[in-house]
Write a structure and sequence with these properties.
The protein has 153 residues and is an alpha/beta fold. The chain is 48% helix and 21% strand. The chain has helices at 40-58, 76-92, 102-110, 117-128, 137-152; strands at 2-7, 12-19, 25-33, 62-66, 97-100. It has a five-stranded mixed sheet. Helix 1 (40-58) packs parallel to helix 2 (76-92), helix 3 packs across helix 4 (117-128) and helix 3 packs across helix 5 (137-152).
Length: 153
């Protein structure tokens, strides 16, 4: 099964595609990056366009999206809007979606819902048999979301 993990954001959307094998392995990972200073609407359109291209080439059977952790921040609304664009795009491609909050992702990969980012990245490396941590962090986070979906099935 091909699972696409997504770490939503307006400036950077992390993505990571895994094949569950056996053995499970990383097929691709990276980010969709939008330019700060551009109008928010244009950035959302760019995210949708780039995600459509990724979905056409990757052909995932399932998408796993990190649930937004609400906190007081100046970019909260923008991140939620970007997440909405991602969810809409996945729906248009009729890709089933599962969602996980950060604590559940940490718990699934490390056994602790309060694990440090480095512990989660180490678990991603171990589970996907990688020699080095995926970069940037948003891509590594997306792989963690994809692995969580696989572990929770």
């Amino acid at each position: 099964m091909r699972i696409l993990g997504i770490d939503p954001g307006l400036a950077r959307v992390g993505y990571g595609l895994i094949d569950t094998g056996p053995p499970q392995r990383m097929l691709d990972c990276g980010i969709i990056q939008t330019e700060a200073g551009r109008p928010e609407g244009e950035r959302l359109v760019e995210i949708a366009r780039d995600m459509r291209q990724l979905l056409r080439s990757m052909r995932p059977e399932l998408a796993a999206v990190e649930k937004f952790f609400f906190y007081k921040s100046s970019n909260t609304i923008a991140v939620v809007q970007a997440r909405g664009v991602l969810m809409m795009t996945l729906s248009r491609f009729q890709i089933p979606v599962v969602e996980y909050p950060p604590m559940q992702i940490k718990l699934a990969l490390t056994g602790s819902g309060h694990a440090e980012k480095s512990e989660v990245q180490d678990a991603v490396m171990r589970e996907l048999d990688l020699d080095k941590r995926p970069k940037p962090d948003d891509a590594a986070d997306a792989l963690a979301v994809a692995l969580t979906a696989w572990f929770q099935r």
